[in-house]
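chain below, 552 aa
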Amino acid sequence: MKDMGSKLLLAGLLTLIAAFGGAVTENVSAESSYRVVVGFEEGTSGRYRTAVEGEHLHTYDSLNAVSMKMNRKQIIEMQKKPEVAWVEFDQRVSVAAERETWGYKATEPSKARSWGLTGEGVNIAVIDTGVAKDHPDLNVRGGVNTIEGSTGWADDNGHGTHVAGVLNAQPNNRGTVGIAPDADLYAVKALNKDGDGWESEIIAGIEWAFKKDVDIINLSLTTCSSSIPMKKTLEKAEEKGVLVVAASGNKTPCNGRYLPDVMYPARYDSVVGTGAVNDEFQRAAFSYGGNSLDVVAPGTGVYSTYVDAKTGVNGYEYLNGTSMAAPFVSGVFALNREAYPHYTIQQLRKEVRDRAKDLGPKGKDKDFGHGLVQAPVNPFKDVSSGRWYYEPVRKLYVDGTVTGFRNATFRPDGKISRQDVVTMLGRTLNLEEKDSNTGFPDVQENSYSAGYISAAVEKGFINGFPDGTFAPRKNITRGDMAVMLDRAFQFPEAGRSYFSDVNGRYYTEPINAAAKAGVLSGYRDGTYQPSEPVSRAELAKALYESKEYSSR
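prediction:
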């Protein structure tokens, strides 16, 4: 968060906590008006909620609660009503930052980017001071302002714009680039020009994000104590499958003392609590740690997009803080969400945890949690660099030709069916999917491969068996693969035989032509083994080499 000195936690919050320990009591002065959040018992009608005495601020449907301004008498009367489950003071929350330099290399997003992982298709809400609408390095899909009496989600502080850039700055040869530049970013302005705000307005922003079907919420803000409405809201986010990342907090005393654990909301079990490290991979001096810390990320001298609050001029700035660390983690989660779309948020949290670079004592510790967050290397757990099929699989994944399985594997040694071969061939050649009625009785019209099979038959790349079937689930042989590739890419005639076991059969010329083109190879004993089934890795390499050949 931006350097705010003693204003990190406002005096109003300190006074309330000192007097009441965070709970509503009869010690509230009669003359004052206070912001409270009121939770109602299940089944309480919306009509009753809106009829209660006091100034209404926000309604939270998912909590069955409202936030209001009330005086002492109204608060005490509200607590007595049987329809009311709880009443809590609205808390002040603050952004978390300071100032210096380094980059994005520590989290290694370049490895993920080489596989085309950029956060595409992932929705992220940044709940903060807003985001500069016209910054040339940012592309925000939309936003909202949840601050009472305020309109517009433009950033009048600079903090939210900086956070947004760490996540989402565009690869446009200017300024910097974010961890997940192709994610869809939403700005929620819930903190004012001083970087302060109320929890009730944060909660309203979270509920707005729910309606936008966001995948990830970034909270680079902190407060000293827990609250029922915030805790319940973030638990609701977890139930909805929304990942929430929050800053662990910059070391600021709360009510005159330092906390033994990270600040809120990072301390909640439903939230990924994020601390900061410096460029020597030491815990940043300002970063709160503790048992609830999950991971750490770069938090000193972070260079990102910025808007000058006084002049409104867009630019770039170096800032320090756990606020700067949190969007690195949100960005890494976005890359993982894209790579592993079928994972639950629990699986995604485990993935990020397991990949984190251990920095302190072995295992989880109070200074670094599970370690320095790292971007995913690739979307497949069983495809490692150095293998003969690595580059073909990578390039075919990037262009959308190959996909994996729900458990994040590619299964390179697994056999591949005829319908999968045709599907991959169709994607490689950008075939227009034809009528799903293929004419084959064993190919269902709603099958994922039906359109490609129709298109490939029309092009003459494939045909069925003498009995009129296609046998879509039958494993394809090395000989049949050569026939399909030769018809699709039209290799020139070989004029000779390359393998001792390929002679006089329907696949002889296609195999020899593909071998001459450098697309297919045999075994060390001089055979090709045309009747053997093809593995997924072998097909990927053959398709890759075919594309390379056709582009020469």
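The radius of gyration is 29 Å. Residues 74 and 372 are 48 Å apart (CA to CA).
thats it, cya
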